[in-house]
Each structure stands twice: as C-alpha cells, then as structure tokens.
Amino acid sequence: MSYFFSVKEVVEQYISGCKAKVEQSFEQLLGKSILAGAMIGMGAATSSVATHMIPNVGIARLVAGTVFPVGLMMVILLGAELFTGDCLMAMSVSAKKHRITEVLRVLSVVYLGNLIGAVLLATLISLSGQLNFSDGMLGAYTIKVALGKVNISTSECLISGILCNVLVCAAVLMAMCAKDITGKLIAVFFTIMLFVTAGFEHCVANMYYLTAGIIAKQNPLYLSQAIEQYGYTDKQLQSLSVGNAVLSNLIPVTFGNIIGGILLIGIPLYYLHIQEVKKNEHLKE
Asked: Counting beta carbons within 10 angstroms of the beta carbon of residue 162, is it exposed (0 to 12), middle (13 to 18) or buried (19 or more)?
C-alpha cells in the first residue's frame, strides 16, 4: 500500500483539477481568493509578531519561517485560491486541456482577490491595536519591513520572486503527493520555512506587508519609534508609498513569481512526465 501519490499522478491530478478552477463563477473564484489573501496575510502578520524584537536577522527569519507556513496550510486544506500556486495551471495549457485565455482569467481574478484579502487583513490588524505591542515597536517593525521591500532593486525583486515561487509551487505539489493531512502539513511546513528563512519575495505576502507598513507609517507613535530605533530619515520614510510599493516591489516580484511557477516548475514537471500522463489517459480511454 502506497502512502503517497507519485509525481506523475500529482501532475495528472492537478491538470484534472484545473477544470474546476476554470468553471468557477467570478463570485466563487473571487471569494476563495480573498480568503487566501487574508490567510497568507495572517501568516505574515503573526510572523512579524514573533520576530519584531529579535535583532539577529538569521534567527528572526528562522522564527518567522516556523510561523508563516500556517498561512499556506490554511489555503490548501480549506480550498482557497492563491495566485502563486495557481501559476501551476500552465500545466493544463501545456496539456491543451484549457486555453491560455481561460487560465489568464483565473489568474487575474485570483490576483485581485488575493490583493483585496491582504489589504483587508492589514486594515483589520491595524484597527485591532496589535501594532501597539512593545510600546509601538511592532508598528515600527512593520514600517521597517515594508520600507526594506520598496528599496530592493528591480532585478533582485525579480530573481527573489522566481526563487520564492519555485518553493511555493513545490510545496503545493508535495502536499498533493501526501494522502493524509499530516503528510500535507509536513510537506508545506518545511518547504515554506525554507523560502521564508531565505528571505525570498512572495507577491501575496507582500500585499500584506506593504499595506500594513503604509498604514503603520500614518501612526505618530510607530513613526517616531521607527526613526528612533532604526535611524530612518524623512527622505527614506517618504519612499514608502503606494506608488513605490506597486512599481518597485509588487510588479517585479509578481513577474518573478510567474516565471518561477510556470517556467521552472509547472511546464518542466509536465514535460518531464508527459509520456506517463498520456499513457494513463490512453489506458482510461
């Protein structure tokens, strides 16, 4: 008795599952996507709570890496729709099961829904008073994280996004390999811990981090703590804006995530196992 599905079987299952994604109504797809954006945001927000007073970057990222994966665990087990994982729908296009326009529609709606969910979660977190932790240092740290992201170079954002989604898509497929919940959680935990500890860039997580940072910047306490503790100047703080968040981070990171998910995981895995998948299809016929 096998305790897991093979990669061949998972590729076939994922391609078959794309039919349900494509056939979902706009409302269903958007709703599931909003949930996913909020779930990933919850993992991001809680990892910030866990790390905001840890000065050592390596240790802080490792601690964040033990908390953040819960977001993707919720997405997978509750059937939400996450943009980065849905980049694997390129396998369905490669298999000629769906047109590229159908997949682009799904990805566009999912991206929008993820953004709405992340922004809503960031707004609720700010209203909850959570950023007041440690005399406002959590709010200052939230500004620091967002400020760091808008000041990463475009090329670094792109490459970091590529590396990130190689791991996220690997986690999604590895979770599908497991036949029980424990196996799925373990597969997600270690793979996502790897991407978070490495500090790679994830567009949906950044939707939360950037929004939360921009909101926190409007609070005088958090702002003064950021200036006092991290030595930021007015010029540096001005770089944290909606425009810079989109142009300097979200756009290049999103393209990087697309490249990583489609060109380095989705399409290669399909073609590496295409003969086996086609053979199984013929046997079913």
From this structure: buried
pLDDT of residue 108: 98
User: Cα 214 to chain center, whole Å?
Assistant: 19
Q: How far is CA 74 from the centre of its chain?
A: 12
Tell me: the pLDDT tens digits for 41-50?
Answer: 999 999 999 9
Q: How far is CA 81 from CA 18, 183, 262, in A?
A: 12, 20, 16
Residue identified by tokens 């709570």 is: 49
CB 232 within 8 A of CB 226: yes
What tokens does 45 get?
A: 């927000």
pLDDT of residue 282: 57
**122-153 in b/e burial notation, b at 16+ Cβ within 10 A?**
beebbeeebbeeeebbbbbbbbbbbbebbebe
Q: CA-CA distance, 207 to 246, in Å (whole number)? A: 9
Residues of the chain short of pLDDT 50, as ranges, are none
What are the beta bridge partners of residue 4?
178
CA dihedral 59, 258, 116, 205 (to 10 degrees): 0
Residues near 258 by beta carbon (within 8 Å), at least 6 away in sequence:
87, 165
Cα→Cα distances 130→16, 147, 173, 226, Å: 42, 19, 34, 16
pLDDT of residue 2: 74
Q: pLDDT at position 273, please?
A: 83
The whole-number pLDDT of residue 3 equals 80
